[in-house]
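Standup notes, structure subgroup. Blocker cleared on the FNR input:
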Amino acid sequence: PPLDECLSLYDFEAVAKSVLPVGAWAYYSSGADDEITMRENRNAYQRIWFRPRILRDVTNIDFASTILGHKTSLPIYITATALGKLGHPDGEKNLTWAAAEQDVIQMIPTLASCSFDEIVDAAKPGQTQFMQLYVNKDREITRKIVQHAEKRGIKGLFITVDAPQLGRREKDMRQKFADEGSNVQRSSGESVDKSQGAARAISSFIDPGLSWKDMPWFRSITKMPLILKGVQCWEDAVLAAEAGLDGVVLSNHGGRQADYARSGIEVLAEVMPKLRERGLLKNGFEVYIDGGVRRAGDIIKAVALGAKAVGIGRPFLYAYSAYGHEGVVRAIQILKDEMEMNLRLLGAPTLADITPEMIDASNLTSR
Ligand code: FNR
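Run returned:
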């Protein structure tokens, strides 16, 4: 169907499923084990209701925001998803171009199909990019990656902490991994076993020994803000803030790691009061969530519960797999249209007006 017939983020998924090679669809769409968590990422949002306010002047709507001090046209970012060329020959550059047009921030994955420099070079002058880091057992490799990223102007380092071993995504594992033009072996140097799907083939270099003790080392090698991606309970969010990190992403990796992990939005409701009561939000510590965000209403629910921004993964992969970078531009525009309408109907003309009272989350934790 023509691009302008895509009306919601779900429409891109349907088109992508019909155009993607079987193996690529398996890699992008799969979750771990029984995919309970992957489905829960959607279900959790459906347990939160709105409490709209009336008779507030909603002529002018403004949802621009910042992430780590950098401007974004709405409180989302394009999160890291590996192997972009499985979906489209331009891979992650589709996301870079769309992010530039729509003024949002892209997080570059360690396991991108395009080289890191290619993705940075594809950005327009002044465009903000973050980087996602898988930590190598060989810390010298990690040091080089991090310091190169900083030199190239990356504005935040998101260290993935929920993947000491890649989850079992059986849909993906059933596919024999055909290396479709990606240079995934670059960052590990080791030979990989391709018999168990794309994910397992590329992840053998990740260090399961990574621990809190490594955090000062990261601080010592870079001035970039450090954010932990994949925090799943308040205890670890508190530890991250106390360790002097700059933020956390409450995330279960799109349901691709621990099955039966809770959704980011549910964990957010648990985390924010604990950080607040300990005074840990004062130094600009930011909390983000990702997983299952498909509607502007989801973004608003996250903001109401205290998230600074939300990450969105699969919908943008699907959008460019089906339509190239124009698909991603359209997907972001759809979110902006939804955002404008939702904020009007809620009586909240700015993000500051999205208070906790705008939602009823009393059923969020009762499944
Ligand atoms: C991911 N994700 C991910 N995260 C990460 O830290 N490093 C990575 O290399 C990848 N790769 C990756 C590939 C694919 C195909 C998917 C779908 C996801 C997780 C990602 O950053 C994010 O947590 C989820 O995608 C968010 O959920 P949604 O928006 O896809 O539902």
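Discussed briefly. Residues 27-28, 41, 79-82, 109, 111, 132, 160, 229, 251, 253-254, 256, 290-293, 311-314 surround FNR (CB under 6 Å).
Next: hand off to the docking folks.
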